[in-house]
Amino acid sequence: MNNLKNNIDHYMKLKGIKMYSHLLANIARELGIKGQDAYEFANREKSNFSKMLKGERPLKYEYIIPLEKIFGISLARLSDEGAYKLPVEKENVPFNKGFRYYAYLDDAQLYKSEFDLLLAEDGKSIITRTDEFGKTFLDYVVEYHSVNGVRYLHECYGIKLRWYYNQFEFNKDKGITWINFENSIGFARLVASMNDVELFNDIYDSYNMFYACGYYDVGSCIFANNEFLELVLDNEGIFKSVFEEKPYVFELSNFGKRKKQVEAKTYQSINPIINSCLNYALNHLDKYKQQAITMLKFGINYNRKKASTIDYDNCYVCNELGALKSFKDADLYELIVLANAEIETKDAEIESLISQLPRFKKI
Hints:
Blueprint: H1 2-15, H2 20-30, H3 36-53, H4 64-71, H5 75-79, H6 99-105, H7 108-113, H8 137-143, H9 147-157, E1 160-162, E2 167-171, E3 176-180, H10 184-193, H11 197-203, H12 206-213, H13 226-234, H14 236-241, E4 246-252, E5 263-269, H15 274-283, H16 285-309, E6 315-317, E7 323-326, E8 333-335, H17 348-356
Antiparallel strand pairs: 1-2, 2-3, 4-5, 6-7, 7-8
Helix pairs in contact: 2-3, 2-4, 10-13, 13-15, 15-16, 16-17
């Protein structure tokens, strides 16, 4: 922590800030404290701040962004000048600002002109790196509600949630990078709040989950998470998109020492999350009865259409997601609307609709 004190003293001198009380007054203004209140804040916090710099107390988290803005440098660099470095190339310019600064500022142009060049010590992107608080750029995107950060990650890194773990895939320049992100629900809420249905569905790609695995792991998959299902049911635009039947190209890569050709197949399907949403709604009719009715009415017509296009006697439902497979055609992978038979709603209207759902044989 002495490094932090020495570096803060150094940058205070460069900025012409003579006393800690003056620095604290600047911090107060960055926190939205104005006028005389800023000086009262400085006097009140001076003793605590001095102890923080001496390592006798932890640095208050709310001081981080103000300090970074005042000095134009990340806290990581304030603590250690060698925290980040760029490869030695002509076009590179040294940037001193940490990635929390960019999430806080959320400037679309700065993401592409500056942040995109900010690298970790090994020369790789810091997207998957953690700071001194164990947080990634994604954590700060959620914390500061950085909608431009979401668009940047989508446009430049192709961010997608993959497989049945809460892993995000980034595909940029040299292959794929993975990150385990604990706050995937917080990130999903942020993406949903942007009211960009196409963006939301591209990042939270339940089609990939369905065609890659054919099931959801309830313990680790966000598509089986109750909060995520409520988010879909509560958002009018996202909920409507569940019914859209569209082509989906699924690519199955072959990994190993020898690279093989990527296999791709195009499927025509509604959103595979529909049955998880339906069964959650059936279990919570007090809140989602109308959504349940909408899904059941849709399912009656949709299932009838599917039944007319397949060899009914040789097809069977293979899991709770409504995956429909064929004994004769291994490539056939359809989806039907499926209400969980174990759910007792005791609602006459709902039970009537459930009884009208065309049924398929189960394996």
